[in-house]
Every structure is written in structure tokens, then in C-alpha cells.
Specification:
heterodimer, A: about 110 residues, 11 strands, B: about 110 residues, mainly beta, globular
């Protein structure tokens, strides 16, 4: 599992409330990613990080922010959750070497009522 | 723009039948292509990469640059192959991002 854990694994919240999802890795990988998974859309990149305090937007970044204050943690924040953000969120890290392979966490299922 | 298209949402076959999951891509450079699989209640995991030209669990995929395709094939499907399959592309971009297709659910019936 490349030492990736996500928390919480399940969350139900109400529209307008803030939500933070945490991705934690134990193997000092430089690159980390947040994707959302939705039926008919596959996985879409929200934000990614290429080092501490270095982040960039993906294709569906509106309504999301991220922070990476230390190598092992990559936080995804929904400042004011909306029903359209109901989804399964996956964190991933890029493996070492030049394989291009990503290793995924187990996912966090978020329901916004 | 980089894009990956998987035209089939659901593919249903009987055990022992051949399987082909389609993937087409759009990219102007030399892409790296991958197939990822997600079994029920498990995390996504890499199935195979075009660079390694390997066969994993009986699956193969050949990159066809002329047709911009990377179809996944298996000659004889097994029930345990039932899962979601995602085709993904990595270009020469910063950050090693993967662009995923919409996914194809493979259902292998006994």
C-alpha cells in the first residue's frame, strides 16, 4: 500500500460546512495527488503537490484548496461543501524511479447533504 | 489537450470469452500509458504499463500510435477479472500527473 492512509474514510456533512481530508504517507515521497472519482467521469485530478509548500491545480480545482506543510501530509479542504462535491476522494503518491506509477490510498467517501 | 477516452461504460462477457477494453487517447507528444484496476472494495492498483510490454494476469495491451489506442485484451476472461478498469496517460509534464479515462466496468458471468 506504499504507506498511504486517508482520513476520514467516511464522512457525511451538510452543505456550507468546511471539510478537511487528510492524506498521510510514511515513505518520504515527493509527489502527492488528490483525485475525485465519480461515475461516468472516472478519476479527475483536483490538486497535486511536488514538495513541501509546492502545490498546483488540477482540472477540477474550483471549490478546493490544499496544503502541504510537511512531506508526509497532504490536506484537501472544502471551504464550504456543496452537494456537487459528494464523491469518493483518492490520494495518491508517485513511486520512486521513472516508472510513472501512482500508488493510491483507500479512498474517502464524502456525502454532502 | 490531453484526453483519454474509454467508450464503454460496462462490458459484460461470459467466463472463457475473449475480452477487449478499449482506450483511445489524445496527446501530441510521446505518452506513457497505463491500465489501472479497482476490484470491489479495494484501492486502485496498476495492472500494466505500455513501456514494460508485460502480461499481467493474462492481460496485455499494445500501444498503437497510428490509431492512438491502448486497448486491453485477455483471451479467456475469468470471474475474478470482474472490476473497474481505468486507462491513464502521463505526458511530459511537470508533476507526473495521470489523466484517467472514464472507466469501464467489466462483468464476467459464470
Amino acid at each position: 500500500d506504499a504507506g498511504i492512509t486517508q482520513s476520514p474514510r467516511h464522512k457525511v456533512t451538510e452543505t456550507g460546512t468546511p471539510v478537511t481530508l487528510r492524506c498521510h504517507q510514511t515513505e518520504n515521497h515527493r509527489y502527492m495527488y488528490w483525485y475525485r472519482q465519480d461515475p461516468g467521469h472516472g478519476l479527475r485530478l483536483i490538486h497535486y503537490s511536488y514538495g513541501v509548500k509546492d502545490t498546483d491545480k488540477g482540472e477540477v480545482s474550483d471549490g478546493y484548496s490544499v496544503s502541504r506543510s510537511k512531506t508526509e501530509d497532504f490536506l484537501l479542504t472544502l471551504e464550504s461543501a456543496t452537494s456537487s462535491q459528494t464523491s469518493v476522494y483518492f490520494c495518491a503518491i508517485r513511486g520512486r524511479g521513472n516508472t510513472g506509477e501512482l500508488f493510491f490510498g483507500e479512498g474517502s467517501r464524502l456525502t454532502v447533504l | 489537450a490531453q484526453r483519454v477516452t474509454q467508450p464503454e461504460k460496462l462490458l459484460s462477457v461470459f467466463k472463457g470469452a475473449p475480452v477487449e477494453l478499449k482506450c483511445n487517447y489524445s496527446y501530441s507528444g510521446s505518452p506513457e500509458l497505463f491500465w489501472y484496476v479497482q476490484y470491489s472494495r479495494q484501492r486502485l492498483q496498476l495492472l500494466l504499463r505500455h513501456i514494460s510490454r508485460e502480461s499481467i494476469k493474462g492481460f496485455t495491451a499494445d500501444l498503437n500510435k497510428g490509431e492512438t489506442s491502448f486497448h486491453l485484451k485477455k483471451p479467456f476472461a475469468q470471474e475474478e477479472d470482474s472490476a473497474m478498469y481505468y486507462c491513464a496517460l502521463s505526458g511530459n509534464n511537470q508533476g507526473g500527473k495521470l489523466i484517467f479515462g472514464q472507466g469501464t466496468e467489466l462483468s464476467v458471468k459464470p
